[in-house]
Design brief:
7 strands; Glutaredoxin; globular; 5 helices; 7-stranded mixed beta sheet; alpha/beta; 151 residues
Length: 151
């Protein structure tokens, strides 16, 4: 996966068990927030921070989703427990994690990563934190969406 390439399409289940298809979101920017696991300390801070900044994310016009290898039921519990506004997608088999090159050193987990796809389906930003102990900064992500021509 390289910046400037067409983002590979995928379909994953959301926390309600509905299909979420990347191709259906062409025409607006999409932000993929990969994270290792539900209800873990750093991941909880990351998703709650996105929840707290949700109005700023919405202003960009981007579709923002969180992706981990946890199950649909795990995502539902996690979202309900913390009142999360970010749509969570389940990649239990790790297919999208592998497709986007965001595999963690932790077995069967995603690394913490931010991928920004513009309205034409081009990857404009691809950053992976292999150590996964540092969460992305919301200000940085929001500014990238605006400044990379993704919005």
């Amino acid at each position: 996966m390289k910046v400037g390439e067409i983002a590979p399409n995928f379909v994953l289940k959301d926390l309600d068990g509905n299909d979420w298809d990347l191709a259906e979101h062409r025409g607006k920017p999409v932000v993929l927030l990969f994270y290792p696991g539900d209800d873990t300390p750093v991941c909880t801070k990351q998703m709650c921070s996105a929840r707290d900044r949700w109005s700023d994310y919405k202003e960009t016009g981007a579709e923002v989703v969180g992706i981990s290898t946890d199950s649909v039921s795990s995502h539902r519990s996690f979202a309900d427990k913390y009142g999360l506004t970010v749509k969570l997608l389940s990649d239990e088999k790790g297919d999208v994690v592998n497709l986007y090159g965001v595999k963690s050193w932790l077995p069967n987990r995603a690394a913490r990563a931010v991928v920004i796809i513009d309205k034409n389906g081009i990857v404009r930003h691809h950053n992976v934190e292999r150590l996964s102990i540092f969460r992305p900064n919301d200000d940085d992500t929001i500014n990238l969406i605006k400044n990379l021509g993704a919005a």
